[in-house]
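We were asked to recover a plausible sequence for a given structure. The inputs and outputs are reproduced exactly as logged, with field labels preserved.

PROBLEM: sequence recovery
POSITIONS: 429
GIVEN STRUCTURE:
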């Protein structure tokens, strides 16, 4: 006997797509017998993975079965058809509600009740009990034989066999499912170890047979890919918007200089709290990037204003850090305090959103430090190099202009001297 239970929370049920386990290893192919052997090998290999529990092969191929072989000639002589015999057996073993549902209305309260007639299970313990089942004819072409009663043993024989109790298909092909639960480890780690465990089996698979890992692991990988793509797109979009805002290609890079600190804070916070990297944690990373970028914009904007007023790059950077420290700290503190209850994971279902709060808190703590310390330093270095470059270029241009002026003056003086000599010679003649 195998028992399967749905996950307790609605989120896991949705991610599992109705499956009883978060990891579903599917073996698909044309040869059913070969697929079943491969599925058994996969089950044995996965059972040795740390954190993988309740490893079960869903399909049962040897469930006991009783076959009723009807003597159609004798049944026809007795006024029975195969349909009559099958309907009588179905009603006796599974109740009449399957073929002829009926109801009874309680006159006292008006409540409807299903009325079903079946043979008590206690009277169907042996094959002989089944063979002694009475049958009633109801569809005979001969009216004299209609309603006639016979025992099942007079019209059919019963034999034992085995049959698959569950037959599953995926994209038309036959499939065997190995369900795996996860305990005391994160889902991604268990899924990665499972891939390594079944890798030797995949190398020896015959042509047309495949092993696929589905369930929450597949949904998680798809979500990670989408969120990582969204993270890269968010960084690119922030940079382009800052380029339009600052009318510069360099200043946005200074603003984004605080983001490495945010990423480092996220990793440290998740590591310190023993929290696995998950989809909520990645969403928290995107949130912390937005807040860190906003704080950096405050510093760079104020530093540019001071630079236009005549301050040196170093003085402008120091003044921006000193002046904007209060709004930066207030913004970060408000966000951290707001995420603190979520990060603690208190209450029912709080542990699912706790990675988001922890990622935001860790990212903002280090992002605030890098915003107040690293961003002014980057601003001062970049602006000083630009000023030095412009000054050197201006000096070179001034030197070239002076050289040109001197050469032009010398040429003009030579021309005047030549003209005077010519005039003197003319007068002497």
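RECOVERED SEQUENCE:
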């Amino acid at each position: 006997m195998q028992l399967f239970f749905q996950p307790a929370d609605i989120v896991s049920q949705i991610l599992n797509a109705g499956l009883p386990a978060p990891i579903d290893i599917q073996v698909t192919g044309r040869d059913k017998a070969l697929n079943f052997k491969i599925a058994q090998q996969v089950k044995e290999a996965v059972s040795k993975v740390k954190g993988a529990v309740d490893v079960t092969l869903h399909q049962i191929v040897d469930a006991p079965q009783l076959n009723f072989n009807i003597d159609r000639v004798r049944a026809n002589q007795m006024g029975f058809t195969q349909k009559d015999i099958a309907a009588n057996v179905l009603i006796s073993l599974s109740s009449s509600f399957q073929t002829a549902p009926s109801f009874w209305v309680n006159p006292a309260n008006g409540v409807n009740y299903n009325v079903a007639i079946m043979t008590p299970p206690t009277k169907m313990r042996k094959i002989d009990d089944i063979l002694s089942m009475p049958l009633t004819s109801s569809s005979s072409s001969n009216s004299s034989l209609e309603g006639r009663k016979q025992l099942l043993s007079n019209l059919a024989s019963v034999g034992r066999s085995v049959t698959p109790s569950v037959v599953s298909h995926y994209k038309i092909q036959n499939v065997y499912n190995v369900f795996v639960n996860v305990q005391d480890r994160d889902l991604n780690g268990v899924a990665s170890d499972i891939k390594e465990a079944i890798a030797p089996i995949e190398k020896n698979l015959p042509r047309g047979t495949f092993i696929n890992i589905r369930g929450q692991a597949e949904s998680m990988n798809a979500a990670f890919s989408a969120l990582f793509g969204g993270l890269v797109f968010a960084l690119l979009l922030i940079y382009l918007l800052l380029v339009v805002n600052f009318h510069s290609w360099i200043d946005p890079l200074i603003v984004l200089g605080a983001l490495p600190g945010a990423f480092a804070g996220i990793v440290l916070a998740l590591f310190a709290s023993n929290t696995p990297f998950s989809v909520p944690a990645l969403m928290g990373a995107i949130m912390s990037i937005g807040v860190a970028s906003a704080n950096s914009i405050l510093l760079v904007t104020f530093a540019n204003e001071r630079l236009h007023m005549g301050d040196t790059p170093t003085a402008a950077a120091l003044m921006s850090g000193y002046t904007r420290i209060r709004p930066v700290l207030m913004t970060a503190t408000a966000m951290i305090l707001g995420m603190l209850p979520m990060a603690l994971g208190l209450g029912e279902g709080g542990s699912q959103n706790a990675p988001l709060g922890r990622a935001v808190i860790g990212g903002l703590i280090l992002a605030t430090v890098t915003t107040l310390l690293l961003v002014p330093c980057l601003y001062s270095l970049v602006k000083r190099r630009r000023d030095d470059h412009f000054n050197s270029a201006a000096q070179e241009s001034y030197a070239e202009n002076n050289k040109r002026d001197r050469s032009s003056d010398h040429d003009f003086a030579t021309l005047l001297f030549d003209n005077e000599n010519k005039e003197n010679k003319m007068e002497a003649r």
